[in-house]
Amino acid sequence: MAAPQLIDADFLAALQALMPRGRVWPRDADAIQSRTLAGCAPTYTRLTARANNVISDGFPGSTYELLPEWEASLGLPDPCAGAAPTTQQRRNQAVSRLIATGGQSISYFTAVAAALGYTITITQFAPSRFGRPFGRAFGGVAWAFAWQVNAPTFTVNSFQFGGSFGAPFANWGNNVLQCELKAYAPAHTTVLFSYS
What we know:
This protein has 6 helices and 5 strands. It is of the alpha+beta class. The protein has a 3-stranded mixed sheet, covered by helices on one side. It has a two-stranded antiparallel sheet with strand order 3-4. α1 packs across α2, α3 packs across α4 and α5 packs antiparallel against α6. The two termini are 40 Å apart.
């Protein structure tokens, strides 16, 4: 539900409704009380618009003005996003940090990548053992601790409304994905990246 967009006339009507009844409290447009209240109404309109901005800034996926506060509380920015990340990349990292509660499942890492704006699949490996069908990849015990992230060669991140001025309309690359997933990967595992 969107926040209400109130205008000066709405506040003028509300302020006039708060005035006492009687002949000395006219509500005509040219009355002194009406003109005085009309002078106060733009302040309420401006403050309500600012309060509506706080509603959208209360969520990291849509924040703009409070993005530095979100980043400070989440330990961002970090080197994964590069030297000059776009506003949308910074938002995605903040959302990713909030949902990254810890886990070692395929669905967990897929969700972390999706929060960053990447669509991936994960391949798990197993060491070779007796009874395994022929034609499958052969590997030693170390393959029990390896997993592969499959992603497109170039993930296109398009410019979104509300992004920062001067940002490109699209950028390509998977550097943020690699950096973040390596940081979240369990220490005893090896992460491989395959781009198709």
